[in-house]
Design a protein that fits this description.
There is one protein chain. Helix 3 (about 270-280) crosses helix 5 and helix 10 packs antiparallel against helix 12. The chain is built from 12 helices and 22 strands. The longest helix is centred in the first third of the chain and has 65 residues, at about 5-70. It has about 675 residues and is of the alpha+beta class. The model is unreliable at about 240-245 and about 585-595 (pLDDT under 50).
Length: about 675
């Protein structure tokens, strides 16, 4: 028997169906949402990866350009292209554009690239298509932003002047008071230019090889630039009596610039205002001078008013230098570290004076407030990091500085327009550590002569022998390495070093040498040269120029160093070190003259030195001692030796008869010989 379905059952089935349809709809919507989010995530990740690869390409391009400049930026002693380790400066990206495109028959192929004809008109039609197919070397791919830029936005406007500042040789435009005129050409570093990255870099641009990214870079030379985070100071303000040195200004007040330069012992004594005044005289230093009443005074006048005479330095240059350093100090002078040094010799590390005006030393224990003041060389509260953007941020400097920097870039004259890029080429935001460099003031090397980074901060003075041997060793190694290498070009134009035959002919050795293995006699040939002597003399002069050698209150004697000789089993003689020569009886530990007995013993011929004996203390013909040069007396800065030989013959004539006809007899006479030896020091 059939049962009849009730309306209730039909209603339940309908509800279940609707629920299932709703669930399916929710699942579909959720799936679409998840898919879209995943797609967005994938797109974001893809774009991030592409951006990272583009940044890597920019870094590689900058590194390659810097290395190429260093490797080919100098010449050696033969006039050949050679490496110049210091030959690097501001570098920006540049794309490949020819100024001769479509104007010379020789400009064909990938070199025929330009968006403008020689007459300044925009390239169009088939020529434009030809330009696109020639995009291959550092391509300037067209990125159209507005109709006012028919060639596309191909540069990065870092100086924010709204126009392209070309790189390379460009016309120098000057203002003559009426208009602007061209005054020749010179080399400029300007706006970074965008370089396209093709999907297949080994093929030219085309429909199947589009540009997937582009990059632009600017590389600031850290090792060849000043450090904006370490330059300038506010070390001094005038107190009421105008005769003593500084007290802190807290908070710092604009218009009260009290920069102080004393002995120049640190980067904080570098004058940032002077840098700005020289960077662009039209903005920061139209007139440069000093004195209580500047002629034709205006705010643009660079006024270095020292002694302060109750007022601070004045002019836009000092105002802007003050604003930049105020940001570093967080407007709080007491944010700097204190009690960093005790009195160290006669060096004004705190930059608190007194001013050194002559040759007499100052007392570093002089403090205005009776305690060591804040050290202006300490780390600052704030730092400049992103220099291209930070310099245009008035919150990190001042509205006036940003206005003057912007006005310089907007000017018509080339000198003003490129001021910003000249600034970047000379002023960075970091300092290259002097790793591996010998400090001229304090001992920073170990017993093996290796530099210990930071050891100079222990303020341990150099000993005369320690400075001389370490400095001489570095000079000799550097110079003989260059002498030994004769750079010759290979088939691909790369300069490679080979053994210089002249070096071998001079020293009879093939390797660079230092102070511990200076060749004197090699293969029975005397090879000690004046060039080596000059480097040794330079090392001694550097030390004696900065020190006083007053043993037991004696006069300022020059330092004297004598060589130690060693002869190997092959009979070759080398200088293997040096020792001090002190005044007899005035220095404990005077070196014992084990071989020759006395410092001024007669020299011997180098061939007579015994074989297989090392560090002999003796005098050898042709190998002088090293005597440091000193100003004033006593000194041994010159030595002259002159030999004068003369011969005189005397003849005697005798009249033997009287009358008009006489007979004269001549005696043979005698000879007078004389020899003089003139010695002067």
């Amino acid at each position: 028997m059939k049962t009849r379905r009730t309306n209730d059952e039909s209603g339940i089935a309908l509800v279940v169906t609707l629920i299932l349809m709703a669930v399916a709809l929710v699942m579909a919507v959720a799936f679409l949402a998840i898919s879209r989010r995943a797609k967005g995530s994938v797109a974001t990740q893809t774009n991030g990866t592409a951006a990272r690869y583009a940044a890597d390409a920019a870094l590689a391009g900058a590194e390659a350009q810097i290395v190429a400049t260093i490797m080919s930026g100098g010449t050696n002693t033969h006039g050949q292209i050679a490496a110049d380790p210091c030959g690097f400066g501001l570098v920006v990206s540049t794309n490949d554009i020819s100024t001769n495109a479509f104007s010379q028959p020789a400009c064909v192929g990938f070199a025929n690239v330009s968006y403008y004809y020689a007459n300044g008109n925009v390239v169009g039609g088939d020529d434009f298509n030809q330009v696109l197919t020639n995009l291959y070397y550092d391509p300037r791919v067209p990125v159209m932003i507005s109709s006012n830029e028919p060639a596309g936005r191909f540069y990065l406007d870092l100086n924010r002047n709204g126009k392209f500042d070309a790189n390379g040789f460009a016309a120098d435009v000057i203002s003559n008071g009426v208009g602007v005129v061209t005054n020749g050409n010179s080399f400029h570093v300007g706006d970074p230019e965008w370089i396209g990255i093709l999907e297949h870099p080994d093929a030219p641009y085309g429909p199947d090889n589009p540009a997937v990214a582009r990059y632009a870079f600017i590389a600031v030379p850290v090792g060849n630039a000043l450090d904006l985070n370490a330059i300038h100071n506010q070390a001094m303000v005038v107190m009421n009596n105008q005769s003593r040195y500084r007290a802190p200004v807290n908070p710092m007040t604009r218009g009260q610039d009290y920069f102080f330069r004393n002995q120049g012992v640190g980067s904080w004594e570098l004058n940032l205002a002077a840098f700005l005044a020289d960077l662009d005289t039209n903005q920061w230093g139209a007139m440069v001078g000093s004195g209580p009443t500047p002629p034709g005074y205006d705010a643009n006048f660079y006024w270095y008013n020292y002694p302060l005479a109750g007022r601070g330095y004045q002019g836009y240059a000092f105002d802007d230098a003050f604003s930049l350093i105020t940001n570093r100090y967080a407007a709080n002078y007491d944010s700097l570290a204190t009690n960093v040094f005790n009195g160290v010799g006669d060096i004004d590390y705190y930059n608190d004076g007194p001013l050194m005006t002559g040759f007499s030393p100052i007392s570093e224990t002089f403090y205005v407030r009776g305690v060591p003041p804040p050290w202006v060389g300490s780390d600052n509260t704030n730092h400049f990091f992103d220099e291209p953007d930070d310099l245009f941020d008035p919150a990190q400097s001042s509205a006036g500085f940003v206005q003057r920097l912007t006005a310089a870039g907007a000017a018509a004259a080339t000198y003003d327009r490129y001021s910003y890029y000249r600034l970047l080429s000379q002023l960075g935001t970091d300092s290259d550590p002097d790793s591996g460099k010998m400090n001229l003031n304090y001992d920073n090397v170990d017993a093996n002569g290796s530099v210990v980074d930071g050891a100079e901060t222990n303020f341990i003075s150099w000993t005369p022998l320690g400075f001389f041997t370490n400095a001489a060793n570095r000079l000799l190694l550097a110079y003989t390495a260059d002498w030994a290498a004769n750079y010759v070009p290979t088939n691909n134009g790369v300069m490679i070093p080979v053994l210089n035959s002249n070096f071998w002919a001079t020293f009879s050795v093939t390797n660079a040498f230092g102070v511990g293995d200076i060749p004197v006699l090699v293969s029975n040939r005397f090879v000690y040269t004046p060039a080596v002597q000059r480097l040794l003399q330079l090392a001694a002069n550097m030390y004696d120029a900065t020190t006083n050698n007053t043993y037991n209150g004696s006069p300022d004697w020059p330092d004297v160093f004598r060589p130690l000789f060693s002869r190997d089993t092959n009979g070759n003689v080398f200088i293997t070190g040096y020792t001090n020569v002190y005044p007899m009886g005035q220095m404990n530990g005077y070196p014992v003259e084990s071989t020759n007995g006395y410092p001024l013993a007669l020299p011997v011929d180098v061939t007579s030195l015994p074989v297989n004996v090392y560090n002999m203390v003796t005098n050898v013909y042709g190998v002088p001692w090293i005597v440091g040069a000193k100003k004033g007396y006593p000194n041994f800065n010159k030595f002259q030796l002159q030999t004068i030989f003369s011969m005189t013959r005397k003849l005697q004539y005798t009249r033997t008869t009287a009358g008009p006809r006489i007979t004269i007899k001549a005696d043979p006479g005698d000879y007078t010989l004389s020899q003089e030896l003139l010695l002067s020091v």
